[in-house]
């Protein structure tokens, strides 16, 4: 059976992992957290002192994922989206949260002042949405609210319906 590939992207802390994990348990699609994948395989090429985080070796990440992506049925979660091949994804969801909500979530994560401010700014200016629109066809890019549990439930139901329809459309 042919299955779609889905990209979940957003500023960190907005809710990709929460949605991705819940979706995978209810859809049977595989879930890949690119941050975890990079950590496990040490797919880094340097370290960012200012943001206190390693910098991804994007080419190695793409090589690592290529086979699974061509098989289909993968939900990819990452806070960046312009280095994945456009052909990989059948739909792209950009999650969004209100500033006050996101601020609290990032504060809880213990982000330093600069990282916190920059991420809030990233959300205010819809950087990930712009990046998704620049990287994928506009008609496959969708924004989803991710402020409260009801949003999560609505998003899951909407995406499950989309998956079901996609499978029907591609079986024959
Ligand atoms: P991300 O993967 O984008 O970094 P996450 O899934 O780890 O974000 O979520 C960050 C925090 O926000 C986590 O404590 C769970 C919470 N959260 C996510 N989506 C939510 C929602 N729709 N309603 C309430 N809390 C949510």
From TrEMBL:
Q: Which GO terms describe its biological process?
A: ribosomal small subunit biogenesis; rRNA processing
Principal location: cytoplasm
The EC number on file is: 2.7.4.3
Q: Where is this region: LID?
A: 108-118
GO molecular function terms attached to this record: AMP kinase activity; ATP binding; ATP hydrolysis activity
List the subcellular locations. Answer: Cytoplasm; Nucleus, Nucleoplasm; Nucleus, Cajal body
Q: What class of enzyme is it?
A: transferase
Q: Which UniProt keywords apply?
A: ATP-binding, Cytoplasm, Kinase, Nucleotide-binding, Nucleus, Ribosome biogenesis, rRNA processing, Transferase
**Catalytic activity of the protein:** AMP + ATP = 2 ADP; ATP + H2O = ADP + phosphate + H(+)
**GO terms under cellular component:** Cajal body; cytoplasm
Q: Which family does it belong to?
A: Belongs to the adenylate kinase family. AK6 subfamily.
According to the record's subunit comment, the protein's assembly and interactions are:
Monomer and homodimer. Interacts with small ribosomal subunit protein uS11. Not a structural component of 43S pre-ribosomes, but transiently interacts with them by binding to uS11. Interacts with COIL (via C-terminus).
Which protein are we looking at? Answer: Adenylate kinase isoenzyme 6
Q: Which gene encodes it?
A: LOC101374608
């Amino acid at each position: 059976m042919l299955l779609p590939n889905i990209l979940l992207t957003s500023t960190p802390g907005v809710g990709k992992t929460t949605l991705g994990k819940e979706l995978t348990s209810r859809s049977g699609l595989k879930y890949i957290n690119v941050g975890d994948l990079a950590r496990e395989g040490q797919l880094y090429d340097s370290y960012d002192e200012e943001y206190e985080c390693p910098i991804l070796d994007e080419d190695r990440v793409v090589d690592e994922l290529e086979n699974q992506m061509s098989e289909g049925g993968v939900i990819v979660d990452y806070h960046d989206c312009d280095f994945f091949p456009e052909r990989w994804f059948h739909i792209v969801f950009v999650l969004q949260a209100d500033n006050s909500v996101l601020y609290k979530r990032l504060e809880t994560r213990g982000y330093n002042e600069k990282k916190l401010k920059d991420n809030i700014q990233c959300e205010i200016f819809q950087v990930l949405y712009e990046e998704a629109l620049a990287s994928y066809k506009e008609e496959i890019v969708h924004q989803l609210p991710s402020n409260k549990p009801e949003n999560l439930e609505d998003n899951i139901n909407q995406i499950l319906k989309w998956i079901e329809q996609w499978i029907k459309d591609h079986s024959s």
